[in-house]
Amino acid sequence: MQVMNVDIETYSSVDIREAGAYAYAEAPDFEILLIGYKINNDPVKVLDLKTGPAKQGALLTEKQKAFSQECNAFYSALTDPDYIKTAYNANFERTCLASYLKQAMPPEQWMCTAVHAATLGLPATLGAVGDALGLPEDQQKDKVGKSLIQYFCKPCKPTKTNGGRTRNLPEHDRKKWSLFVEYNRQDVVTENAIREKLSIYPIPEDEQKLWCLDQRMNDNGVRLDMPFVENILDYDKTYQERLREEAERITGLDNPNSLAQLKNWYKENYGMNIKSITKDTIPEIKDTLKEKAQTQSGIRMLEIRQEMGKTSTKKYTAMKNAVCRDGRLKGVLQFYGANRTGRWAGRIVQVHNLPQNKIPDIDLARELVAEGDFSSLEMLFEGMPFVFSQLIRTAFIPSESCRFCVADFSAIEARVIAWLADEQWRLDVFRTHGKIYEASASQMFHVPLENIKKGSKLRQQGKVAELALGYGGAFGAIKAMDKAGSIPDEEIPMLVANWRKASPKICKFWREAETAAKMAIKERRTVRLKNGIAFSYINRILFIHLLSGRKLAYFDAKIEQTDKGESITYAGIEQQSKRWGRLETWGGKLVENIVQATARDCLAVTMQQVSQAGYSIVMHVHDEIICDVPKKDTGALKKITDIMAESIPWAPGLPLRGDGYETDFYKKD
Description:
This protein is α+β, with helices and mostly antiparallel strands. Among the domains are: 2-203, Ribonuclease H-like superfamily/Ribonuclease H (Nucleotidyltransferase, domain 5), CATH 3.30.420.10; 225-322 and 355-391, no CATH class; 424-502, no CATH class. The protein contains 25 helices and 20 strands. The chain has a five-stranded mixed β-sheet, sandwiched between helices. Strands 18-19-10-20 form a four-stranded antiparallel β-sheet. Strands 11-12-13-14 form a four-stranded antiparallel β-sheet, covered by helices on one side. Strand 13 and strand 14 form a beta hairpin. Helix 5 (126-133) packs across helix 7 (174-198), helix 17 crosses helix 23 (504-523) and helix 23 (504-523) packs across helix 24. The chain is globular. The relative contact order is 0.09.
């Protein structure tokens, strides 16, 4: 099998950060500027599609002939299934080349080096991976690339100096263009060096097949109700203008959006020195205002400030920016986006953090928006920004003559951790009635299950405990999960103790996982747990071998002395800074990674089975899949949920159950 490493440089007036690769490559002015490639052990070649040798009269020069032959050789290899094409973030190369050449780029002929790096716990960007792997200087990514991309790949601002042009071409700066060609060449060198370095840890065949399924799903995308989206965006402009005019009438300010002006207005009118006006400080400011005379205007201004500050239409704007010519949104999920567990990450619209549907009669609200009847909407529903945020899911609609079949795994993480820890009473719950919140409360408080009703205090405590304590959490975890503040602080220690007493095998799993990880790092050997999970340490990487056959990777793992004693640390992306640095982990966190990764692998098996059954998955959110199904296929939902309940080959005894519903637009049932 031949291997060709590919890297391209492109131009488009569409901002790829806002619109994603698919809409970017559909722009009328999109073009490929440079194609760097390397076949097997041959030298890197760069096809300069902007300044390649030009014809002289009717005859081709020798340079032109050679360039033409080079282009033909590349295109021949690109479309030859006997050549495996590799790229760092191969989705970009596939999408752009397919758009430019008007020819399909089957994912089965491609491999993604970025995914390969993610499976080993490495950072997301090419340069950062090269640094983490310690590549020699001549194989590192060229650091000047960012400024060159800004110059040649994006529109420029017209100025008097540049003659009012809106785009920089090679002839505008030949020196920069030469550097750009070398930058493209060096990217191929870096990508190839990374690929070779990682080749001793090949991507499992099942993962490669899953990536291909993911690519086809992203290529297909999900249909958007664009008239619905446009109605909301158009109305929001009117609504925001109305709020601004009201704010001007109340305050008399030129710019009531200005925090400095608004704080000064409160000082002059109410004698209040306000440091900040945010959703956290507004309740306190309101309480202070209520103690003063004639404060109705001040309170209303805070309400307007809140309304104007809400981001309820940002996702609609993202949809408008990213929708493709066929009316579909593509590329909303990134394969292996969470490189600690291998779960997908959301992109563009961020489907993993869509608001819940909490407004009553969402069908009516959606219908009124679709009809443009915002007067009735305002009369029947309170708070337009809130209503719009609740309707975001409903902008996703099935293809023509189809409906959505939405199905998810019921309590998948709770089932997986019970199965891995062999917590028998929990497994019995999931093999029978499935009421884990009630059963947990029954175990903790020694109350008969039938006495714990929905809405009761005991069930609420059981629910909070289940959601907060499975991975070693304690007081802080309960406080974070109990957003309503229903559990008094003095009761939390007892709740934690009762939960742990009721689930001793899960607690033991935390301890065993941490002990095994430390032993693997210290002794450089494989340590196996009774449930089949294994820990090993090879080339500075701590691997956790899952029962699915996949491995989790913790790069540059070490045992270090901290204020907690011996701690496991590794190199990874810090959540706050989003930078590559040292992270700490422990037993509960390792178990969380194992459980979430195992749940992800269950979803992966199910997605492949559902796809093989002939159903088109347009997207998936957490443990839920959304399928486009012809309306005439009346038995589809049962078939899909039955597939979700089937035993996983590598997980005998894991009790799974699929729940689902049918809908004419996406929503939370």
